[in-house]
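Observation: inputs received (chain + GN1).
Thought: call the complex predictor directly.
Action: predict_structure
Action Input:
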Amino acid sequence: MAHRLTAAQQFTPQGQILDVRAYGQGNVHDTFLVTLEGGLNKNFILQRLNTRVFPRPELIMQNLRVFTAHMRGRLQRETLPPGRRWEVPEVLLTRSGQDHWLDTAGSFWRALSFIADAQAQDTIRDLKHAGEVGYALGRFHHLLSALPPASLADTLPGFHLMPGYLRHYDGVNAQKPGKKSPEAEFCRRFVQERRAGAGVLEEAKAAGQLPLRTIHGDPKVNNVLLDAASGRAVALVDLDTVKPGLVHYDLGDCLRSGCNPLGEETADWQAVRFEPDICRALLRGYLSQARDFLTPGDYDYLFAAIRLLPFELGLRFFTDYLEGNVYFKVRSPEHNLARALVQFRLTESIEAREGAIRGIIKELTEKES
Ligand code: GN1
Ligand code: MG
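Observation:
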């Protein structure tokens, strides 16, 4: 593709580009890894942002400037435990000093530094990995806990807001009554049976029980980079949804991603389950960094968040399937339906293990608080 090479050249001050290849598992943007000839920083990340999902990409770049500067300031004032590093991706500028480049078709391209000697996994390998993923999210929240959420723009209005997702689903479902497979009917019933409780986090927020904070928005397992040698978490990447929100969205999302050993892309949706041991290890890693800013009210809504986030993502996937796959990238017309089934099955598994999960939350929050 000529375009990606031309785009990569905009962010390349000197030297020759050896390769621009598709990179990562993103469902929204197009991401590439650029390799340059020689030199110290021989790789960088190039992305074409999806402006259908993010209609104001300039706000993403503005937010990135604000919170990465805040994070770096905080990192300078704090010492990390020995043997740990924490990296913050840097925005790379074009040859004319801009933080993005628009191609002739109007596509929005931007580049970020590549974090070397680190890698991501799509699913949790073992309990140590689970602890590191939790640590990374806790570290991230900790580093941004003093940044007033109002200093960030809302890059994606409505993100994680269940009442809005349900309204949108109702509208789409009413217009597209055609899809009537047993799987689609299962999904419709699933949503119907659970919609009454779906406003729980928004109601708590409106009642002042849960405060707005600066959150990541998409802390799934493969957004946590691990040091290649030590396996320790070194960064949380994919920063376009860093904006005001509830830490509960992040925790619920991180746990729905981490505690599903088959992963969100499995075809074997019937076998999907939520793994309480991973939940314990991940939450313990998180709390090691998060105790200083969490309030007792936050703990009260933890289980609700763990249950709600896979339901939310399943609803978003199912709606997109009904709508004709306009939001998430798909490899087949049924891909979003398959993804929805995985998340709904995971929700059921969480419901079946409610006692165990509440027990873990109690054990961890009482023991060390
Ligand atoms: C999307 O593009 P990606 O993979 O980083 C989505 C998340 C979902 C995730 C599921 C902006 O993230 O909310 O949890 O897919 N991002 C957006 O894999 O909608
Ligand atoms: Mg993302």
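Thought: report the result.
Final Answer: The chain has two domains: 2-116, 127-368. The longest strand covers residues 30-36.
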